What we know:
Number of strands of chain A: 8
Number of helices of chain B: 7
InterPro entries (chain A): Sulfopyruvate_deCO2ase_bsu, THDP-binding, TPP_dependent_decarboxylase, TPP_enzyme_TPP-bd
Number of helices of chain A: 8
Radius of gyration of chain B: 15 Å
Helix content of chain A: 40-55%
CATH architecture of chain B: 3-Layer(aba) Sandwich
Number of strands of chain B: 6
Distance between the termini of chain A: 35 Å
Shape of chain B: globular
Number of domains of chain B: 1
Largest interface: A-B, 34 and 32 residues
Strand order of the largest sheet of chain A: 2-1-3-4-8-7
Oligomer: heterodimer
CATH class of chain A: Alpha Beta
Organism (chain A): Cognatishimia activa
Largest sheet of chain A: 6 strands, parallel
Shape of chain A: globular
Number of domains of chain A: 1
GO biological process, one term (chain A): small molecule metabolic process
Keywords (chain A): Decarboxylase, Lyase
Structural class of chain B: alpha/beta
CATH superfamily of chain A: Thiamin diphosphate (ThDP)-binding fold, Pyr/PP domains
Helix content of chain B: 40-55%
GO molecular function, one term (chain A): carboxy-lyase activity
Distance between the termini of chain B: 24 Å
Order of helices and strands of chain B: HEHEHEHEHEHEH
CATH architecture of chain A: 3-Layer(aba) Sandwich
CATH topology of chain B: Rossmann fold
Largest sheet of chain B: 6 strands, parallel
Amino acid sequence: MIRSEILRDIAPILRDQLVVCNIGIPSQELHAIDDQPTNFYMLGTMGLASSIGLGLALAQPKTVIVIDGDGSILTNLGTLPTIGNNCPDNYILMIIDNGSYGSTGDQPTYTSMKTDLVAMARAAGCENVVEVQDVDTGTALQAAIDSGKGTVMVVKCDSGNAKMPVITMDPVVIRDRFMKAVAS
Amino acid sequence: MNIDKRIADDLAANDVSFVTTVPCKQLAGVIEEIDQRSDIFHIPSNKEDEGMGLCAGAWMGGKRPAIIMQNTAIGVTINTLATLIQYYRMPLPMIISYRGELREPVACQVEMAVHTKALLAQMHIPTYHFHWQSDVEEFDNILKYTFMCNKPVAILTDANFWGGYGDQ
């Protein structure tokens, strides 16, 4: 499965949750598959989805699901120790690990070679780290939500992108409707 | 006057309850003060752009954030300031130790100091420079201004403001 197929699979689970979605094609795919006011789409700033989601989870009690990528985690590796040492129970970091920089032409990342994000997350202090195969994403995500414990999921899947339109919504509109959804 | 406590008191009085920090020798006292307070949640960051991501999330979650960092961080965070904090129009007080200014003992710090105000001006970031201890009187108004206009705002605090650092 490629990322867009996973997102289509888990859209019914995501719909009722606060979601912070990674820059580029992941946000375009989620926006096209199931746009919700509870989705915060990153339009720039590669690497910070996990940090934005962590700040959000620490600031309020609702469950926060971050849809991140292997390339973006590698860009901001300092995030893993910060998560490992401050992880609240309402924080789920779902790293879609397709071993490539999808938004820039599927160049390989180091996770397609020797680098193991599951081991890195554990070494950084994250307590609940699960490796998930693409077809099991929905089951694992629901289990993470139901567990009520902060979780890092590393979802192994194929490289590839769906052709989706760019997001033209104004960033302040995205942010404003998201904040209203958070507060509701 | 204890300026570490004064800064933390002003933050708390303005409902700033989520503070992330990347340390600097000049900032050690204020970071320690914030870490000890029960009315401010302190989360250290490994890098300043990561810290701005945390602050963005905290603000969307209903908390007023602030970041404490060194001016070298301006070189790290230009993209984050432009594409996250400014693009989504978020407030962010940035309490910045202004290394490389008068009374600086480390020559390399001057290399970023000479670019700091120019970069902030280029980014259209409102910038205040605390040089005398009494300049801290402005801090409360700067915080109110920041959360009024939903912009990142820089407060540069130089070695003279902190009373120098002696040998380093």
